[in-house]
Fold this sequence. Notes:
Blueprint: H1 2-6, H2 10-36, H3 50-76, H4 80-111, H5 120-141, H6 146-161, H7 163-173, H8 191-242
Helix pairs in contact: 2-8, 3-4, 3-6, 3-8, 4-5, 4-8, 5-6, 5-7
Amino acid sequence: MTAHRSGRRPADTAFFAMLALSAVLLVATIQVVFLKAPIEARMGIVQKIFYFHVPSAYAMYLGATACFGGSVAYLLRPTDVRDAIARAGAEAAIVFGAVVLVTGPLWGAKAWGVYWTWDPRLTTALLSWLIYVSYTVLRSFSGDGPGERRIAAALGILGAANLPIIHYSVQKWGGQHPAVITGKGGGLGHPDMKLALGLAFAAFTCLAISLIWARARVELVERRLSRAEEDAIDLGLDTRTET
C-alpha cells in the first residue's frame, strides 16, 4: 500500500536496499582491512591486496554464473529479461575480472619477484576474462538481433565452462599460485584477518548483485525506449501515409 502511494515498486525498494547494504559493507570492509587487521609478517602491507583480490575473483564467478544462467535460459526461451541478465553478468565479470588481473600482479611482484608468470590459474583466468570481453564486444558492435543474441549466449556458456578449470588448476597442474583459503598458502591465522576476509566476501557479493541488477534494469529500460521510438516512428509514418 505504501509502495503504491509513493510510486515506488517493491522491486525498486529492494534494489535500493541492496545498494545501501553494499555501500555499508564496503565501508566496513575498508575500515577493518586497513585499521583492524594486522599486517602480515612476511608479505607486509602488500598482503592486504588479498582481501580485495580473492573476493573480486568470487564476484567474477557470480557475474559469469549470471551470464551462464541468462544465456541458457535465453536459448531455451528467448526473452528480453533473460538476455539482459546474461549481458549484465558478462559485464560484471569483466569489471571484477579486471580487478583480479590488476591486483594479482601487484601481489606477484612481492611474492614471486615478477608481475606476471604464465601460471595455470593466471592463464586460465585471463582466458576467461577475454571470453567475456569478446561477449561484450560482440553485443556492442554486431547488432541486437536474435542471431547475435544466440551467438553471444553460446559465448556466455563457453565462458562458464572455463570457471571450473580456473578453480582446480592449482590442484591439477600445480603452479606458483597459492591456495591460501585451503591452508596450503600460509593461511589467515589472526581472527581479525578472517573477519576482514569475511566482510570482503559479503561486500563484493552484494556489490556484484547490485551491479548486475542495475545493468539489467538499464538494459531493459533502453530496450523499452528503443521500441517506443520505433512505434512512434511507425505511427508517424502511418499518419503521413493516411494524410
